[in-house]
């Protein structure tokens, strides 16, 4: 049952990156769009993600609940030593959801719409940034559980170049996923070309921040290169991920919507496997050389068994309901949205 719980944890994070990441990415694309074209991207974004935007954070909630119930040692360490970036990330989620709602459903159309738009785009950037910072900090070996000062305990563990490089890469991949998904949601050739350009821009940003991640991992003595190329599974998933990226761009230029979306999701999955496999089941690597493992920090067997049963039973309701929500909600026309 432990492996079932771990599987749900990993899958929930993958789906959150794919769906929630593209959700954030829509706001990121809007942030890097000229004022003349922002109204178009708002219409397309709302049309595409309107049916499921509230459901995306369900996957993050599931992951948090799994850690809280099943792996309290990991949950406690993250919530204590990463509480500052966690609070910023959660504030970003709240602010973004609030702004998204008010800018579409506010009965009074006035200058407040500009404020809602700003809150939406900046929180769309900040939230995945700090999500990536937390993820990078977990493996950066900078979290100091033996710290004697506030700065070393609660700031230096995440306030470093490696963690922020992972954060900016997370922002870039969210924007890339959104651009790829939205290519298939527009019919006008000019709009398609616009999203293709944005996909290129975000792809370039991904490449840049990957280089920065490797550089700062080298400077910080983080064995990232060995994690990605030190065993057959990691090498295979890394190479497969790169091949998926090539096939994705071929699908884009052939306007094959289903394939481009499949390759985008598959590439992200391969990337996630590549960066987590080598140090599995160790989730958090500490500054003192210790680590927190999914096996070493698990709760009592009765708790794990109950959690596994609850997750299996819940998935029987959640997954069909989510599929029904996506396919039963009619797409709004541009006129209806505006």
Automatic annotation (TrEMBL):
Signal peptide: none annotated. The chain crosses the membrane at residues 6-32, 53-74, 80-99, 119-139, 159-181, 201-218, 224-250, 262-284, 304-327. GO terms for cellular component: cytochrome complex; plasma membrane. Pfam families: Cyt_bd_oxida_II. The keyword Repeat does not apply. Coiled coil: none annotated. GO terms for molecular function: electron transfer activity; oxidoreductase activity, acting on diphenols and related substances as donors, oxygen as acceptor. It is a multi-pass membrane protein. This is Cytochrome d ubiquinol oxidase subunit II.
């Amino acid at each position: 049952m432990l492996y079932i719980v771990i599987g749900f944890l990993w899958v929930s994070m993958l789906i959150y990156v794919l769906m929630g990441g593209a959700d954030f990415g829509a706001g990121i694309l809007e942030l890097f769009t000229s004022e003349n074209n922002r109204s178009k991207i708002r219409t397309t974004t709302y049309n595409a993600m309107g049916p499921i935007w509230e459901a995306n954070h369900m996957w993050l909630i599931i992951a948090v609940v799994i850690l809280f119930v099943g792996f309290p040692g990991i949950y406690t360490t993250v919530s204590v030593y990463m509480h500052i970036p966690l609070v910023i990330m959660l504030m970003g989620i709240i602010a973004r959801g609030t702004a998204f709602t008010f800018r579409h459903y506010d009965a009074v159309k006035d200058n407040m719409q500009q404020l809602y738009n700003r809150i939406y785009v900046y929180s769309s950037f900040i939230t995945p940034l700090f999500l990536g910072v937390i993820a990078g900090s977990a493996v950066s070996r900078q979290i100091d559980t033996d710290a004697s000062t506030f700065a070393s305990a609660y700031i230096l563990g995440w306030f470093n170049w490696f963690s922020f490089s992972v954060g900016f890469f997370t922002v870039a991949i969210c924007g890339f996923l959104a651009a790829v998904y939205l290519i298939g949601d527009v019919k006008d050739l000019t709009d398609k070309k616009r999203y293709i350009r944005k996909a290129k821009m975000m792809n370039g940003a991904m490449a840049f921040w990957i280089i920065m991640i490797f550089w700062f991992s080298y400077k910080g003595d983080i064995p990232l290169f060995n994690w990605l190329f030190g065993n057959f599974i990691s090498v295979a998933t890394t190479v497969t991920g790169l091949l998926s990226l090539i096939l994705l761009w071929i699908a884009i230029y052939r306007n094959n919507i289903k394939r481009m979306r499949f390759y985008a999701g598959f590439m992200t999955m391969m990337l996630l496997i590549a960066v987590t496999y080598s140090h599995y089941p160790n989730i958090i690597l500490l500054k003192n050389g210790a680590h927190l493992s999914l096996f070493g920090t698990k709760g009592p067997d009765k708790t794990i068994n109950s959690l596994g049963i609850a997750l299996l039973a819940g998935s029987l309701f959640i997954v069909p309901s989510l599929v029904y929500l996506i396919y039963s909600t009619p797409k709004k026309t541009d006129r209806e949205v505006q």
